[in-house]
């Protein structure tokens, strides 16, 4: 496995609509493993392909609970409801944190690294992380959804 270079804002790749994945091969598996290693090393809970300069609909989420690694390839939100307000940051915006309103529940259809389609339902922080990463695949940055930015030291990381 190898650590990949995180793309920082204002790199234009972060605001591109990503292409669907059509090839589920060893190269994709290696990319997901490298993305995971990078996310863990950077102390993140999610990472999307545009954040490493790849404009494909590939994202991963692992919030450190029993749900483990979630591979979101070609994801689509099927249902959403409720509301939550909470802090978000992004590996592409080092040191920047803001309060963002998101849906509290999402139901998502996606594929895994082998191309198998599955449905996942998520609430709370996991739902927040999934929505954040899916936004990346559509060129939407969390900064466009911030209610207010946090001052340094206002939240504990």
Task: Give a summary of the structure in a few sentences.
The protein is an alpha+beta fold and 157 residues long. It has helices spanning 26-41, 124-137; strands spanning 46-48, 58-61, 70-81, 84-89, 97-102, 105-111, 117-123, 146-149.
Q: SSE layout and pairings?
A:
Layout lengths: L25 H16 L4 E3 L9 E4 L8 E12 L2 E6 L7 E6 L2 E7 L5 E7 H14 L8 E4 L8
N-to-C span: 26 Å
Helix content: 10-25%
Q: What is the molecular shape?
A: globular
Query: Which structural class fits the helix and strand makeup?
Result: alpha+beta
**Uncertain stretches of 5 or more adjacent residues:** none
Could you describe the largest sheet, including whether it forms a barrel? 5 strands, antiparallel
What's the average pLDDT?
96
Tally of helical segments: 2
Number of strands: 8
What value does the Rg take, in angstroms?
Answer: 15 Å
Strand order of the largest sheet: 1-2-3-6-7
Provide structural commentary.
There is one protein chain. It is built from two helices and eight strands, in the order αβββββββαβ. The chain has helices at about 25-40, 125-135, and strands at about 45-50, 60, 70-80, 85-90, 95-100, 105-110, 115-125, 145-150. The strands form two sheets. Strands 1-2-3-6-7 form a five-stranded antiparallel beta sheet, sandwiched between helices. Strands 4-5-8 form a three-stranded antiparallel beta sheet. Strand 6 and strand 7 (about 115-125) form a beta hairpin. It is globular.
């Amino acid at each position: 496995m190898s650590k990949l270079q995180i793309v920082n804002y204002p790199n234009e790749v972060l605001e591109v609509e990503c292409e669907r994945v059509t090839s589920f091969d060893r190269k994709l598996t290696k990319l997901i493993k490298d993305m995971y290693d990078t996310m863990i090393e950077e102390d993140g809970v999610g990472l999307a392909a545009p954040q490493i300069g790849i404009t494909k609909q590939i994202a991963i989420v692992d919030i450190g609970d029993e749900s483990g690694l979630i591979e979101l390839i070609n994801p689509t939100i099927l249902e959403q409801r409720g509301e939550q307000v909470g802090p978000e940051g992004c590996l592409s915006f080092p040191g920047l944190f803001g309060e963002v309103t998101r849906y509290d529940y999402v139901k998502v259809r996606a594929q895994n690294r082998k191309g198998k389609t599955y449905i996942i339902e998520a609430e709370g922080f996991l739902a927040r992380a999934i929505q954040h990463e899916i936004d990346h695949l559509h060129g939407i940055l969390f900064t466009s959804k911030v209610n207010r930015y946090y001052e340094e030291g206002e939240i504990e990381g």
